[in-house]
Amino acid sequence: MSAPAAGAARPPEKTLIAGVGNIFLGDDGFGVEAVRRLGAHPLPDGVEIVDTGVRGVHLAYQMLDGYDTVLLVDATARGAEPGTVHLLDATQPATPRPRAAALDAHHMTPDAVLALLDTLSAGTGGRPPRRVLVVGCEPADIAEGIGLSDPVEAAVDEAVDLILRLVAADAHTEAEAEAEADADVDVDGETDADAETEAETEADTTERSTTRC
Q1: Of 198, 155, 163, 207, which Cα lies nearest the Cα of 15?
Q2: Successive 10-residue mean pLDDT values, the chain, 213 residues
Q3: Please, are residues 137 and 83 in contact by the beta-carbon 8 Å criterion?
């Protein structure tokens, strides 16, 4: 095996950040507002932001478009204080996802989108993302009306900061992995097993820092 060409770099991993929610149902518009503010910040190469709103079917199809990581941003009720920001790992849920039932465009939660994703992946052969995270916020009021409640409004910037840290960490980890791979290639082109060990350690850290859906 020959060593990679000097200066050669693989394309950056593709990451999708999708704001989910209905802006006409109060705090359910949290995800839409969060990605709107996120758009004002510089992001690493390969990171794409979309305002999905209630177009859950469209999002499920888009998630099969070769993304390595997908971050879903949405109001997520988990029994905490309103305005609490959650980071959930939805890649391998703790309980099986229900099969996608009749679609209701106004109630396409991340769970419903992911259930539909499983169905579409099996039917089309599309590749689902390697990792799916949900950045959620505990809602206070999802009654009809436009505008976020005070605690959820205050949590938007916290969620944006969290997302920026997540995508920056991914970019930093990828750059480190490439640098280490270059450093570990010997004259015969063989690599050290340390890279694999570090990758496993990084995966363990991610699991510990998030909560399974």
Answers
A1: 163
A2: 49 88 95 96 94 87 92 94 95 60 57 80 80 96 96 98 92 58 44 43 38 57
A3: yes
